[in-house]
Amino acid sequence: MSSPLLALPGAVGGDGIDAAVAAHYGSFNTEQRTLVSGEGFVDLSHRDVLRIEGPDRLTWLHNLTTQYFLDLAPGVWTQALVLSPQGHVEHEFTGVDDGESFLAHTEPGRGAALVEWLERMKFMTRVEIGLVDDHAVMWRPAGYSFVARDKLTAYADAVGPACGLWAFEALRIERGEPRLGLDTDHRTIPNEVGWIGPAVHLDKGCYRGQETVARVHT
User: CA of 199: how far to CAs of 69, 78, 90, 193, in Å?
Assistant: First the structure.
């Protein structure tokens, strides 16, 4: 769905999978400098959001993904990957637990496939998974946050100025943070794109694709 923040003054929509949010609000360079200074926010409300609930959610995610989820404290953001048996990246998500559920976001259009895969992995585990449309992703220089979708305009008024995706992308690329499907393809392994550390924990138990990750790393 298109972001209501495209109605802000000067907003110019993005392209491709990013068409639902603003590429810029009139000055890409000014917006980039704003973000570098620690001010402003970026509308990422086009990203897919999913919620994972249930008492087994963190243990289950720990066993399935590349990240260490055991004893994840509420409010601590983390990133994880799902790999193929050969170690190729199939899914990526970033999220935070609130003590009762884990709310995560992934690339636009990729949420349904991620939920479908996770549903196949439930077996007897006490978890519930689903896409949600009541929360949207925002980014500020301090990091990601979830905002109630019906509060986006109020959020923009409170924490502006709004900065477009072009400025966000320039800084993301400068930091060396890949986007699944834009900077990767079906044969990408985490070691190639800087996901070792941020999204791959090297000192946890076995997970699908671990052999490739460990062999290349060592």
Answer: 11, 7, 13, 11
Would the pTM of this model clear 0.90, i.e. be above it? yes
Show the beta-strand stretches assigned E in 67-199.
Answer: 77-83, 89-97, 101-106, 128-132, 135-140, 143-148, 162-163
What is the separation, in whole angstroms, between the first and last Cα of the chain? 44
Distance, in Å, from the CA atom of 30 to the CA atom of 65, rounded to the nearest integer, reads 39
CA dist list (Å): 202 to 59, 206, 214: 17, 10, 8
pLDDT digits (tens, 9 = 90+) for 28-71: 999 999 999 999 999 999 999 999 999 999 999 999 999 999 99
Q: How many CB atoms lie within 10 A of CB 175?
A: 8
Distance in angstroms (rounded) separating the CA atoms of residues 104 and 97 = 9
The kind and range of the H/E element at 60 are: helix 57-64
CA–CA dist 92, 78 (Å, integer) = 11
Q: Find where tokens 């791959």 sit.
A: 200
Residues 187, 194: Cα–Cα separation, whole Å: 15
DSSP state, 115?
A: H
